[in-house]
């Protein structure tokens, strides 16, 4: 099953393995470069069905760090085109994750300490639902007003339009990991008293407006994914029951798949990470909201991935660090599972896999 094609709307992936979005922090002013071509391209050569970019900022202020990839102008989209084209030529579906970092924006890249830089010359003030800092050392974000909320919806919608122009065939909106849209969902970060805070309907309003606007700016045949944190792992925070309701609403506005992750709305939430630990969330949402799901998180073994997809626990698996460790993770998985997967014609004979 792992190597059976997955069709969503008019797009068919050759298998149910997606490269999970992973920040490379290797851009200047959001522009892609040779790193992105080789990094994403080699995972497409390595047999993944879907190759998704890292979190791609929909606006300058929505970057996690000054070195994030971005798509806030047509020049960004144009520069992404060769990357998209290569992924497609290598047989994978090119996908992009659209993101706004919210109150977790304006930090140094991980290898320079990942500390907030809002008060430095190259920094900026992060935005959020309420002036509650993410963690010690982070500033209280600027509380977003009506114009800011409208700008976020417009930015996501324009970014999706550009992504489509660049040739991406799957668009994912990042609504997890404590970034802007998750911070609206979670009562831990959102204590607004207007239409965007309080009840679940209100906290879900901005994420749903974004999803609806993105759906509208895409052609009908292209799938739309949404990544969520299914729980904050904190009492009084976001949880699975709310995720299931959100998934039902997302389905109504035209979202096709929920990519199930968790946590990261606070720096000190105790995440119970273990092999496949998000799979039960993906299964519950799939069954109770009636929407396709992807599972991510410590899916490292081909047999484990096969079991998840083959027994209907999720429709697809996202593999992150496994693909950093081995760009050919998917081809090696096929070999282990004795499944058919096409090695690149340039390599096949030499490694003893005739095509
Ligand atoms: C990530 N992750 C991540 N998630 C996301 O939604 N957008 C992103 O840009 C990133 N960036 C990122 C960078 C790096 C270096 C890592 C290791 C992770 C999370 C990632 O997509 C995935 O959900 C987790 O890594 C768990 O899956 P694995 O790695 O256990 O397969």
Automatic annotation (TrEMBL):
Enzyme Commission number(s) of this protein: 1.6.99.1
Q: Which GO terms describe its molecular function?
A: FMN binding; NADP binding; NADPH dehydrogenase activity
Q: Cofactor(s) for this protein?
A: FMN
Q: Which UniProt keywords apply?
A: Flavoprotein, FMN, NADP, Oxidoreductase
Q: Which residues form the NADH:flavin oxidoreductase/NADH oxidase N-terminal domain?
A: 2-338
Residue ranges of coiled coil: none
* Domain of life, source organism: Bacteria
Pfam families assigned: Oxidored_FMN
CDD domains per the UniProt record, alphabetical: OYE_YqiM_FMN
Check the record and name the InterPro entries matching this protein: Aldolase_TIM (IPR013785), OxRdtase_FMN_N (IPR001155), YqjM-like (IPR044152)
The protein's name: NADPH dehydrogenase
- Recorded source organism is Alicycliphilus denitrificans (strain DSM 14773 / CIP 107495 / K601)
């Amino acid at each position: 099953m792992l190597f059976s094609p997955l069709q969503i709307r008019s797009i068919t992936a050759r298998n149910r393995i997606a490269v999970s979005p992973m920040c490379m922090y290797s851009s200047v002013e959001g522009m892609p470069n040779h790193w992105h071509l080789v990094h994403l391209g080699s995972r497409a050569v390595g047999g993944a069905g879907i190759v998704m970019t890292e979190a791609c900022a929909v606006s300058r202020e929505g970057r996690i760090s000054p070195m994030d990839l971005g798509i806030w102008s047509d020049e960004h989209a144009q520069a992404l085109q060769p990357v998209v084209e290569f992924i497609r030529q290598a047989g994978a579906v090119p996908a992009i994750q659209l993101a706004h970092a919210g109150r977790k924006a304006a930090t140094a890249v991980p290898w320079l300490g990942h500390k907030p830089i809002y008060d430095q010359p190259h920094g900026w003030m992060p935005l959020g639902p309420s002036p509650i800092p993410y963690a010690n050392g982070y500033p209280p974000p600027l509380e977003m007003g009506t114009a800011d909320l409208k700008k976020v919806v417009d930015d996501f919608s324009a970014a999706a339009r550009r992504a489509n122009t660049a040739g991406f065939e799957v668009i994912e909106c990042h609504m997890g990991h404590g970034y802007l849209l998750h911070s609206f969902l979670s009562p831990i970060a959102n204590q607004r008293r207007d239409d965007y805070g309080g009840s679940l309907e209100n906290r879900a309003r901005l994420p749903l407006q974004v999803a609806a606007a993105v759906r509208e700016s895409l052609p009908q045949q292209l799938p739309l994914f949404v990544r969520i944190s299914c729980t904050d792992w904190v009492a009084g925070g976001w949880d699975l029951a709310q995720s299931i309701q959100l998934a039902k609403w997302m389905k109504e506005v035209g979202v096709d798949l929920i990519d199930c992750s968790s946590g990261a709305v606070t720096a000190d939430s105790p995440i119970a990470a273990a092999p496949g630990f998000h799979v039960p969330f993906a299964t519950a949402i799939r069954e109770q909201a009636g929407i396709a799901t992807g599972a991510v998180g410590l899916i490292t073994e081909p047999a484990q991935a096969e079991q998840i997809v083959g027994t209907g626990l999720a429709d697809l698996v996202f593999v992150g660090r496994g693909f950093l460790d081995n760009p050919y993770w998917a081809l090696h998985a096929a070999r282990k599972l004795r499944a058919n997967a096409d090695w690149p014609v340039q390599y096949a004979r030499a490694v003893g896999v005739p095509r």
